[in-house]
TrEMBL record:
Its cofactor is a divalent metal cation. This is Ribonuclease D. Keywords: Cytoplasm, Exonuclease, Hydrolase, Nuclease, tRNA processing. Belongs to the RNase D family. The gene is rnd. The lineage of its organism: Bacteria, Pseudomonadati, Pseudomonadota, Alphaproteobacteria, Parvularculales. It catalyses: Exonucleolytic cleavage that removes extra residues from the 3'-terminus of tRNA to produce 5'-mononucleotides.
Amino acid sequence: MQVISTTDELARFSKALREQPFVAVDTEFMREKTYWPILCLIQAAGEGEEAIIDPLADKLDLSPFLDLMTDKKVVKVFHAARQDLEIFYRLIGDVPAPLFDTQIAAMACGFGDQIGYEPLMRTLLKAKIDKGSRFTDWARRPLTDAQLTYALSDVTHLRDAFPLLTDTLEKRERRKWVEEEMEALNDGGLYHVQPESAWKRLKLRGVRPKEIGVVMKLAEWREQEAQTKDTPRSRVLKDESIFELARLQPGDAKSLARARSIPSGFERSKSGSAILKAIKEGTEIPRDNLPAIEKVEKEKAPADVVDLLKVLLKRQCEAFHVAPKLIASSADIEAIALDDEADVPALHGWRRDVYGEAALRLKRGEIALKLKKDAVEIIES
């Protein structure tokens, strides 16, 4: 097993991988006590090449491997890539490309919604994965041979699974389906939260209009603090504290101290002063400048129509061997039940061919669903 701890070794390994059509990549990281993930290992494998890179090794420069991540000639293969991409986005300021996510590909091939790495490898490769090292503290050194073997297997299996998935996609003419999904992963906003947009992560159900500005400003302050101090958001200010303070809107330290979620003495700290400033700024935002998120009674989708559309979705996904989550969410189905021209993915592109058009025809009564020998069939009305 090759464990790379010097820049020269990494340069040689990365050069060899740049001659490959694709490279399987995985990372091990820790972030329980930090805002930003601490990169502990990078595993990579190409055809005939495989190694573990130790980013914590003294004076190791990751540049040769990061250059590989931006090489457009080499496909980067991940499984459930979102968290790995966040790490590389922070290191290179961009998303590795071109990109292939085996979890998304598996959904397009009918392996179920968001199938995990281990069950997918068992299904595709009959691989037996030792789970004993799953909860390793990857920041500790030295790592045992068993831990390193477990980490490396994540990419060696991935390397073997990639051609099988691409072959299936080609045979079913679904490569473009997956490419569309990969495009969504190129959005840098997925991997770095701008403080002024942090409020969008909160569930604002029940928040009154006059509280919205305060919620926005408190969330912005918390995000700035968490990023600057590299500490989890919840250690700066919990969500429930934001909502309580937005409701109470204290104007001075004495009033702030009365908040149940604020620890004793906090009101006299620098953070306490910053919170009071954020609350004041939030209350001063003109109503017209606030996002339109006031509570509105939404039209309720007819339950029977929703139920029928869900049955149709299950039937179509089984017929086309594709995961339902890749086609439509419950919210999408409710939108279709209410509006034939709803702007949801299920009514566009390949999803419309697989499900959307049939859903509209079912609503119009042009087709019906029939149960035959425990299977749902479509019949022309």
